[in-house]
Amino acid sequence: MQRTTPICMNFVFRENKGRGQLKKHFTVSVIILVHNTEKYLEDSIRSILYQTLDFEQKIQLIIVGDCSGGMCEEICKKYKLLYPENVVYLYLNEYSNKNASYGASVKSVKLVDIDEYSCENARRNTGMKYAAGEYINFLYAGNMWSLNAFEKAVDFFETCGEDIDLISADSELIEAVREKIPFNQKMTAHKIIDIKEQYSSILYRSSSCIMRAETVQNYLSEEHQGSWGDLLLIYRTVLRRQKYGMLSSEVIHYCHAECQETVFLKPDAQRDLQTLFDGLCQESVKQNGCVLQMIQYFMACVLGEMFQQTIAVSDGERKMCCHGVFDKILQQIEDRYLLEAENIDVVVRKALAAYKHGVDIREEIHQIRLKEQQYQESYQYFDKTYKNNGVLRDWFLLHIQGKKVSEYFNHSHYQHIAVYGMAELGQFLVAELRNFGLDVKYGIDRRAGTIAAEIPVLTLEDELPLVDVVIVTAVYYFNQIADSLKDRLECPVISIEDVLYSIP
Q1: Taking the domain 7-259, which CATH number applies?
Q2: Domain ranges for the chain
Q3: pTM summary value
Q4: Which of 61, 79, 260, 302 has the smallest count of CB within 10 Å of its CB?
Q5: HEC states along 89-133?
């Protein structure tokens, strides 16, 4: 992600006529930060609307963003009109009067000379001006909650009294293949975490945190605090009481894989890193008289992620990231925390500890990983070829025995068929089915434009006509293909392997 040049922006506040700030009291205020996330915005909104905690009576939704994509603004307008008492829509615009006709009352706040990262802090702070809830959640568009989240969180807060100011939940990625989110704690019951005793139980995602609004107001980020302003906010909140609540695993914060909050290598990384470290250390010393173990461990994880990202980049980029502030902060973290960092693999942990003491082995690690990748690609190719050849062999044996694949479809009463994977296996299947009078409506293949076939060949992005069944010939990727089709077609998705093995 590259930093944009400073720009002048206005927030246009779109509300009901004559209300100004909403005066109605809510239990929870959710501030959704929107930027280039139209694809998942409605998912996020609906996860709030359908909470077991009554939305119309107890939840306020504040949408803040530039609505930079397609139907984004229309989505916001729709929910503003449906729930005028509960929804505040703050529209980011370069011109305060543009589209100002929506809603009868318009207010604007000029944000001068801020980059896109600082703008995020400004959006968060501006949303807080309109928050009327006892508890606050900052939710990035593309993130969602399980429908019991707010009810469980409020009950937990009320049980704990004033012991905690923040509650968090485990996160789960959506549409991710074999990708895991670190630092999940998988609690069997709600639990209070003492950060002095459990220093590795760190918080890494602000979207998964619900906080007392009164405390948040005291720790709002300055607009120029950079890209980690949200993390600085939640840690200041936690350090106040040195405890926080962790919800049981029945409550989940969801995140689309492409919408993860992460650490980016960017031109301002050093500045933002210094701001984050100084802010955490100052707050820790203020509240406890020293830099707590949790702060050291958290910074080790942040540095570890940055360091890990430098392994696959050029030598110049490595030097740009790991110098100056990075090196200075690294020297203030004990080796034990660098070697324990959960979010990076053990090889990178050791490399980071070695780098702290003047030994840089990142290029060696990079070369090893390239060779590992080449090996994996070769293995995958031969494994895929072996599976495809196995299917062809079984098919050939059926033919020798006088049996036909079409028998399966006649027995199963599937008349209208789609075939996923139009390479050699797919072409064989289409030819046999059509030869026996079955209706093969179309094929599906990511290389649709380059395939010559007897039937139309579509991609997953095209509109897929209704069929009785989809047969997948790309057997190596069957599970991923089945997942991608489940929301597109309401019909069985079957591997050609299962078809062959079911023929007696």
Answers
A1: 3.90.550.10
A2: 7-259, 269-360, 381-502
A3: 0.71
A4: 260
A5: EEEEECCCCCCCCCCCEEEEEEEEEECHHHHHHHHHHHHHHCCCE
